[in-house]
Amino acid sequence: MAPASEASDLATTAFRPHRVVVLALDGLLPFELGIPHRIFGRPRDTEGRLLYEVVTCSVRPPGPVDTDADFAIHVPNGPEALATADTVIVPASYELGPVFEKGVLTPELAAALAHIRPGTRLASICTGVYVLAAAGLLDGRPATTHWADAERFQELFPQIEVDADVLFIDDGDVLTSAGVAAGIDLCLHMVRRDHGTAVANDVARRTVVPPHRDGGQAQYIHRPVPDPQVATTTAARTWALARLHEPIQLRDMAEQEAMSVRTFTRRFREEVGISPGQWLTQQRIERARHLLESTDLSMDQVATDAGFGTAQSMRQHLQTALGVTPTGYRRTFRTGATAATAATGANGGSEPDRTTADSDRHGTIGALN
To answer: How high does pLDDT run on average in the chain?
Structure first.
């Protein structure tokens, strides 16, 4: 048996942060380029070690890359950095040329992408999805992009299942997000998938953003703005969140705002982007996830506290929304996430089961009714 000091040295040597390589293309949006660095640059393990290493590269040798602003940025790495990535992220660019116009890669971009190793996790923010699509990496898969580009994207790539209503889509080894700030939602989701809700929530708090946004990007599509003088549904949501363990009827929530059920339902959809029933299910699933990760409560106790009533009901909801059973979720995000934190952190976390109803992977947990 190796001495304790030698075992400690081996454990230290074995640790390697998950390497995220961000591909900076001409015409990029500085805000979106900064998202991966901000989100993945924060998580640490219990020993204070960064769980991710984030680097930026270009399709050319190190040098300046133009942005859509009045400044360029210096990118220190060439395309060879893509060969070292565990995850590659492609932010949006306004100068994609034939990629955007015809759906084909430039020789320079194709050569850069050829460096990516098989099995590398891929992600795009906003119109960065055009790069993945032009490379044939999204054929037959679901994907999303900014709602304003969705129709054109679908026409250019009919072989892709485009969903313009969601904030992001997780299809296992390839993830896509809607426009701009949805990149934050996507990156937080990847942290949550890799290391659990507690780590992702801590990053969200430090970034001063919600750990999970209700609804999808449908709520951001232009529509008549509600009269600001009309009452909102905020009080009803606050009231419901304090009573998730109790039976809650739609009329109960409407009464908190002194509205009819019909008016309340319409107003709720205008503000949140989903129905009250969908939102309530989301909150109960989030509550169950938290309890499964952070407590030793039995499945029956978790189901009761989260408002599902029975363990069987909770199992059905989590299986539909997350593609995994409560037991499997606890095993992955409690013991599994802890082990990943202490080990290499290099495999991107457990790949979730793929189910077409897995709305958490689509950025809107539990759209069930």
So the answer is: 84
